[in-house]
Design a protein that fits this description.
The structure is a single chain. The protein is α+β, with helices and mostly antiparallel strands. The protein is built from 2 helices and 5 strands, in the order αβαββββ. It has one domain: Nuclear Transport Factor 2, Chain: A.
Length: about 120
């Protein structure tokens, strides 16, 4: 019984490690991009930041009570890998500036990205 538990633990750890590596490769990141336990260096907005924002855009507009025609501009972003990927986006809506934190779970979970925090600057 104890031997089976040890084998299952090793198997589970291996699966998680492989999925984190796969997500890193898919998102063109590597360990050099992320500080240990912290966010990566900030990068200018690109296709990746636009894509992750588009997945939570409706919830963002709802939480801030924005009109659908409000102009959102992403200026820069950084990432942190912890059982998924945290995205920290610095953006502006009209004349207001915000930091938006989005958590994207690992793909095998089947869960969608969600807003973790919105801070007005």
């Amino acid at each position: 019984m104890k031997k089976n538990l040890i084998l299952l633990t090793i198997l589970f750890t291996s699966i998680i490690s492989i999925n984190v590596l796969r997500v890193s490769i898919e998102n063109k990141t590597n360990d050099a991009d992320n500080k240990f336990g912290g966010y990566s260096e900030e990068k200018p907005s690109d296709e990746r930041s636009e894509k992750i924002f588009s997945l939570v855009k409706e919830a963002f507009y709802t939480k801030l009570h924005l009109q659908s025609n409000a102009e959102v501009k992403i200026h820069r972003y950084s990432t942190k890998i912890v059982a998924g990927i945290f995205y920290k986006l610095d953006l502006s809506v009209d004349k207001d500036n915000y930091t938006l934190v989005i958590f994207a779970p690992l793909p095998y979970t089947g869960k969608k990205p969600k807003i973790e925090a919105i801070d007005k600057l």
